[in-house]
Amino acid sequence: MQQLIQTMITPAVMISACGLLLLSIINKLGRIIDRIRILNAELRETEGKETPARLLSIEHQIAMLVHRALLLKRSTAALFLSIFLFVLTSFGIGVYSFFQKLGGHLTLLFFIIGMVCLLLGVLYAYWEIRISHTTIIEEIKETADLIKKGPAD
Which residues span the domain enclosing 32? Predict the structure, then answer.
């Protein structure tokens, strides 16, 4: 039983590595989103007081930031998928052993249920990232409308 759990935990090293990468990437994504919000707020507050050059600069910055955010979103998706696959690997080792020996132990069952919960946590975290990206896109659409309208008379 101990050997089985050790074998199932082996993918945890990769899960941990992905988690460390995710911490860094999500932090960077948060800073990008904050910067986009600052630029959007600047556009809302100026109400036509900015020069056309500044408006063009803000529009260009937002476009670049959105592209960066999209790349980070894809990166987080790949890392979350990696974690998902590593969890499935560990889960598969346990299920194979469980059904092979038919007299599985409660410890193994708890470990498998814990891995399923980890899997669900990864899926929910990715879902949240997708929603946050959609939210910032909506905010950008609002700013784009302000840019298209130009200065208020």
Answer: 2-149
104 phi/psi in degrees, rounded to 5 = -50, 155
Provide the token pair at 8: 């199932």
The phi and psi torsions of 105 (rounded to 5 degrees) equal -95, 155
> How far is 87 from 115, CA to CA, in rounded Å?
6
The pTM (predicted TM-score) of the whole model is 0.68
Place of tokens 């891995």: 115
CA dihedral defined by 50, 132, 87, 99, rounded to 10 degrees? -160
Give the chain's domain count.
Answer: 1
| DSSP designation for 104 | -
Q: For residue range 66-75, list pLDDT tens digits in order.
A: 888 888 889 8
